[in-house]
Amino acid sequence: MNENVRELIRSKSREVVDPAERKVSVLEEEQAQGIAGECGLKIKDVYNEAMEMGIYPYRYLRNMETISLEEQIELSKSRVAVVGAGGLGGNVIVLLARLGIGHLAVVDYDIFDETNLNRQALSHVNSLGKSKSGEAVELVRSVNPGVHVISYQEKLDFSNAFEVLADSDVVVDALDNIPDRFVLERACRDLRIPFVHGALAGFEGQIMTIFPGDPGLRHLYGNERSGSDKSKSPESVLGVPAPTPSLIATLQVMEVLKILLKRGKVFRNMMLHVDMETGEMNEFVFDNHL
Question: Residue 63: which residues within 8 A CB-CB, separation 6 or more?
Answer without folding.
Answer: 72, 99, 100
